[in-house]
Amino acid sequence: MLRKPVTVLTGYLGAGKTTLLNRILSEQHGGRYAVIINEFGEIGIDNQIVVGADEEVFEMNNGCICCTVRGDLIRIIDGLMKRRDRFDSIIIETTGLADPAPVAQTFFVDEDVRRLVTLDSIVTVADIKHFRDQVDNSHEAEEQIAFADTIILNKTDIVAPEDVDDVERRVRAINAFATIHRTARCAVPLDRVLRRGAFDLDRILRLEPSFLAEDDHEHDQSITSISLRLDRPVDGEKFKTWMSRLLMMRGQDILRSKGIIDLANSDRRFVFQGVHMLMDGAFGRAWMPGEARRSQLVFIGRDLDGASLKSAFASCIAS
Question: Span 4-207: which CATH code?
Fold first, then answer.
């Protein structure tokens, strides 16, 4: 039986992984993909902002794919292979807090998975603007670079050229072998990312000799996820004012914020995204007939006060 290739799409919080995934699902490249999305938190946002496509999307929430939900990953792959004629390849988008080593390990140490699929490559998206701080303060961010076969240095449009050069030198000091692409909004030709057959187990074993024997790893326990919901429409100006003030004051500790917001007097969903103090938003698709119109907001960061965030979000309800 011919094994299906798997691309692991990784990168730290807010780097642009979902932007790249949406390109893969919307552009013409002749492939059919099954997609597995893993999020850190009980509410899944990324699966709601992945573009509509024929591909099947599976979601795993409230845990890191490299540990607590690995069993779910194995079961999903097993289920997918029963419908193997509906897709050519699999893409796994990991949470931004995932260490890619145990993810890759799954494809070698689990006998059933190894029989069904093959790890084609690890693609890491890096946020140039926040890269240095992330690598200095996060073991996972450094591991995502070290284990990558392809590295996308993203957001070149919002930093100076000399900063891009400096980040690339830093990346090369961690990983001298990966192919590097500089991009804005992950605008890299997809044939330079997909189905490259780039994963090199020998290189990984030189990097980490215990790779095939490693069973656990550590996470930064200070990072938590706060998930909020509102079932009443939100006042757009109140929400914008609150988020601007919150990210200005606490943006250093808020690694990632994202949400789908039901704005009053609008028939379209408002998609909100934030990375530290930077925020952006745009109207997405229209609310579907019969769809429950509710706002969902997720914060990932350090020392988050869930009760305070919940109260402030509720104060944005439209009068």
Answer: 3.40.50.300
